[in-house]
UniProtKB/TrEMBL annotation, chain A:
UniProt entry keywords in alphabetical sequence: Amino-acid transport, Cell membrane, Membrane, Transmembrane, Transmembrane helix, Transport
Keyword Transport in record: yes
Family per similarity comment: Belongs to the binding-protein-dependent transport system permease family. HisMQ subfamily.
TM ranges: 15-39, 60-81, 101-119, 159-182, 202-224
UniProt organism field: Phytohabitans maris
Membrane topology term: Multi-pass membrane protein
Domain ABC transmembrane type-1: 15-224
Entry keyword annotation includes Phosphoprotein: no
Protein's name in the database: Amino acid ABC transporter permease
Top-level division of the source organism's lineage: Bacteria
TrEMBL record, chain B:
Protein name: Amino acid ABC transporter permease
Organism: Phytohabitans maris
Transmembrane helix listed as a keyword: yes
Repressor in keyword set: no
Taxon lineage: Bacteria, Bacillati, Actinomycetota, Actinomycetes, Micromonosporales
Family per record: Belongs to the binding-protein-dependent transport system permease family.
Entry membrane topology: Multi-pass membrane protein
Transmembrane segments: 21-40, 76-100, 112-137, 167-187, 268-285
UniProtKB/TrEMBL annotation, chain C:
Keywords, sorted A to Z: Signal, Transport
Originating organism: Phytohabitans maris
Domain Solute-binding protein family 3/N-terminal stretches: 55-279
Listed PROSITE patterns: PROKAR_LIPOPROTEIN, SBP_BACTERIAL_3
Name of the protein this chain belongs to: Glutamate ABC transporter substrate-binding protein
SUPFAM superfamilies in the cross-refs: Periplasmic binding protein-like II (SSF53850)
Signal peptide extent: 1-21
Length: 235, 324, 295
């Protein structure tokens, strides 16, 4: 077990990088998912089609393939995902600004993939809003956007928070794939590096990596259980 | 969903319909233009549409066409084998886990007052200990990335002297550990969400706690949860692709080998084809899940049962079932 | 222009397939394998056991072009595979009785220790750490780590070019070359990219995400050959990687036998033939068989 102590810095910096990746991807996924959800319920048919196509494709495609297209398809389109070099953010998240684009590709892959599930979670939340609410809003003359903004979405968010939480937990776990697509120094990649390049024993290293992920996923899961129970009682 | 869509806005009048039409045309044009300038043009400039790259995949007259597809077929067979084994074992162990947790919960409530004090304390400690262990097991494997679980199983088991020979089994175990926990929780919350009268009636008939679970609760939970269970199948099928990490020759790894063996490597083309097949199969599976869900809902209505929402506790459990 | 390119590709395809499909037939036509079963070995040795069983399990790589790559026909092909065939042939085992299993870098020692593979020929660098768990026959080839860059790149001349901190390099996860190059980097986070296979590195070099790819020279030569005129090596090899044949620790008789086999193959042309059919397509300079190390 001494490897956990000897290489504590490796685990700690791996956890930090994974955390940054998850935070940024979660934001991206929430934005994409909300946009897609609004598109799917909008009155414009082509917008609905685009939203539906997006969800269908990314929910049914293995993340590995999605990630491949983020890491090799984007360069083929001539993009290094430079649109993610957002001025204020690059100073906080240093990896966002480096020349090697695989951190940005990882954010693209995780956001786009998770966004499809976020969309479904929000849609389930919208479905949970009693139809009377939307009808009443319409009756007092609110337009579609006003209806969504002031009446439906605020309530939908509340109902969607638990499913959304599960989606984010799944995303944190999915981030473990980043190491296989060029991102150096993330938690699982650090583990692989310790065992296969430095010859450290496998079991302690993986216990370390597991602890790193559990630190992020288990508290979030317990929080969700708690929220869910409170909601159940409130009903 | 359908009614929700229509309640959000009024039936469009002539003006709104005109606006909708105009916006629709603009959206279609924007999508087409975006696809052309941002995707088609750059790809075409690099010759990504050349037959040198696509031929082995789509041209039956190509010399290597049949070889490429024979290997892809082997890859898909390997993928389906692993997925089938994983889903079956996840179902078996997941059910066992759900029953165990339900039983332990019932056991924890009992005081064993008929037994001598030391025996009662021992039994209560044991059941308390077991429920802690099973809870721990669930939290760990639900919280770990499947990649890590698979990798860990494949490298730690041999280290501990457990040798399974074929890599397939490590993948199946890794996938099972995660999915049995998810399925177990789906079934457990399904059983706990059933009306309390079910259990009470069964107990009034003199069924034991285990019999109640087996004969009354579990069958109903399975029925309610069938759509969620089918969605879980999609998850397993997608997760099988993680087998490439431990060099199991499923379809993605085979694709990698094909790409390297072709005189003109064509990763984008191969992955596009494999991805499309994945999407088709999984789309069909999720449609099946929706169909089953509709039929179940209809069945319940005709039986004049209250058309109840899935139990509140479920919402969270269905969601993890719907993704990796 | 277009037509010549197409023809060249078609020709290359036919050639590759031809080699993959007939490579075996050529060899079994050799005099060597006609005396199958007529060989006798001292009782109790591994050679006798394998010869009697008429079966050998060879561990090799399935994703290493030129050395061990699973072809479109599902059979591995490459220099390592040919070396394995020579050993099997000397044991009196025909080619169709060889079973190949995949031995990625991380599991090679394990597969040998457990007896799942009788020998492992898998771009397997001989070093002392590995010798603690298994024994090596050979070396049969000495590779060296080098750096691949775009043909018009003059800014990278060797590993020292990475010390400035602005050049990005790609290699494979958990590999020795990745560990070797790390010590030349000023900042790992902004200079190093790792994938699971080298082809992904080549894609990244092609589209400009990295400036260089580093691994053993023969693998890089393979990519130079496949992408005519696009890439070049940035300088001399900066490490020495003697490839050996892994076998069970302590089996000295078997090790001696394989070493004898290698020496025999050096002198009777089979070694050269194996090279020319496989990795020699990238590197026409036929290596002289390195002196085996009978430690």
């Amino acid at each position: 077990m001494s490897v956990l102590v000897d290489h504590f810095d490796v685990f700690a910096s791996g956890l930090w990088l994974t955390f940054q990746l998850c935070l940024l991807s979660a934001i991206g996924a929430l934005i994409l998912g909300t946009v897609a959800a609004v598109m799917r319920i909008s009155p414009i048919p082509p917008l609905r089609w685009v939203g539906t196509a997006y969800v269908t494709v990314f929910r049914n495609c293995p993340l590995t393939i999605v990630w491949f297209f983020a890491a090799f398809g984007l360069p083929a389109l001539g993009s290094n995902a430079d649109f993610l070099r957002i001025p204020g953010l690059t100073s906080v998240f240093s990896r966002l600004g480096v020349d090697i684009p695989y951190f940005r590709f990882a954010i693209v892959a995780l956001s786009v993939y998770t966004g499809a599930f976020v969309c479904e979670a929000i849609r389930s939340g919208i479905n949970a809003v009693p139809t009377g609410q939307a009808e009443a809003a319409r009756a007092i003359g609110l337009t579609f956007t006003q209806n969504l903004r002031h009446v439906v979405l605020p309530q939908a968010w509340k109902a969607a928070i638990v499913p959304l939480g599960s989606v984010i937990i799944a995303m944190i776990k999915n981030s473990a794939l980043a190491g296989f697509f060029g991102l150096v120094g993330e938690l699982s990649n650090s583990g692989v590096n310790l065992t296969s390049a430095l010859g450290e024993p496998i079991i302690p290293v993986f216990i370390g990596v597991s602890i790193g992920f559990l630190i992020m996923t288990v508290p979030l899961g317990l929080l969700l259980d708690h929220l869910e129970r409170r909601r159940a009682v409130a009903r | 969903m359908k009614d929700q869509q229509t309640v959000l806005y009024d039936a469009p009048g002539p003006r709104a319909r005109r606006v909708t039409l105009i916006v629709s045309v603009i959206v279609v044009l924007a999508v087409v233009a975006g696809a052309y300038f941002l995707v088609y043009r750059p790809l075409d400039e690099q010759g990504q549409f050349s037959m040198d790259l696509w031929g082995p995949l789509i041209d039956p007259d190509n010399e290597v066409f049949s070889q490429v597809w024979a290997r892809l077929r082997d890859g898909f067979v390997a993928t389906l084998t692993a997925a089938a084994l994983a889903i079956v074992s996840s179902l078996i162990f997941g059910t066992a886990l759900a029953v165990l947790r339900i039983q332990l919960k019932a056991l924890n409530k009992r005081k064993f007052s008929g037994l001598a004090a030391p025996a009662a304390i021992a039994l209560r400690t044991l059941s308390w200990f077991l429920s802690i262990v099973s809870r721990f097991f669930v939290e760990i494997f639900r919280g770990l990335p499947v990649v890590i679980t698979i990798f860990f199983v494949a490298s730690a088991l041999p280290e501990l002297g457990v040798d399974l020979g074929d890599i397939l089994w490590y993948l199946v175990i890794g996938l099972t550990l995660y999915n049995m926990v998810v399925i177990g929780e789906i079934l457990r919350s399904g059983m706990e969400g059933l009306p309390g009268g079910q259990r009470e009636a069964a107990e009034a008939m003199g069924l034991s706690s285990f019999q109640t679970t087996r004969m009354i609760l579990l069958p109903q939970a399975f029925r309610i949860m069938l759509p969620a269970l089918i969605s879980q199948l999609v998850v397993v099928l997608k997760d099988t692709s993680l087998g490439f990490i431990i060099s199991y020759e499923e379809v993605l790894r085979v694709s990698g080998q094909i790409i390297q063996a072709l005189p003109e490597p064509n990763p984008i083309q191969v992955y596009a084809v494999v991805g499309a097949i994945y999407i088709l199969v999984n789309y069909a599976l999720s449609k099946l899940a929706e169909y089953v869900q509709r039929r179940l809902a209809r069945g319940r209505k005709t039986a004049a049962l209250p058309a109840e929402q899935p139990p509140a506790a479920l919402a969270a459990e269905i969601e993890p079932a719907a993704k990796v | 222009m277009r037509i010549t390119r197409m023809t060249a590709i078609a020709a290359a395809a036919v050639l590759t397939l031809g080699v993959a499909a007939c490579g075996g037939d050529d060899d079994s036509g050799d005099a060597g394998s006609t005396d199958t079963g007529s060989k006798t070995f001292e009782a109790g040795t591994t050679m006798e056991r394998l010869n009697k069983a008429q079966k050998i399990v060879i561990g090799t790589k399935f994703d290493q072009p030129g050395f061990g790559l699973k072809g479109l026909d599902g059979k591995p092909a490459g220099f390592d595979v040919e070396i394995g065939k020579i050993v099997a042939d000397e044991l009196g085992i025909p080619e169709d009785k060889i079973e190949y299993i995949e031995t990625p870098s991380a599991v090679r020692e394990e597969k040998i220790e457990k007896g799942e593979a009788d020998i492992v020929v898998a771009t397997y660098t001989i070093n002392d750490k590995r010798k603690e768990r298994i024994d090596f026959a050979g070396p049969y080839y000495v590779a060296g780590q080098n750096i691949l860059v775009k043909a018009d790149d003059t800014s990278i001349t060797g590993p020292d070019s990475f010390k400035a901190g602005d050049k990005k390099v790609c290699s494979v996860q958990g590999s020795t070359p990745a560990a070797n190059i790390e010590q030349y980097l000023a900042n790992k986070g902004s200079q190093l990219v790792l994938f699971d296979v080298y082809t992904k590195c080549i894609d990244a070099l092609n589209s400009g995400q990295v400036n260089a790819v580093t691994t053993d020279n023969v693998i890089l030569l393979g990519f130079i050959a496949r992408n005519e005129g696009k890439f070049k090596l940035a300088g001399e090899n900066f490490t020495e990687e003697p490839y050996g044949i892994g076998l069970k620790k302590g089996d000295t008789a078997f090790r001696t036998f394989i070493n004898d086999t290698l020496e025999k193959a050096y002198s009777d042309g089979r070694y050269e033939g194996a090279w020319k059919d496989t990795a020699g397509k990238f590197d026409d300079q036929v290596p002289t068989g390195p002196a085996v190390n009978r430690y």
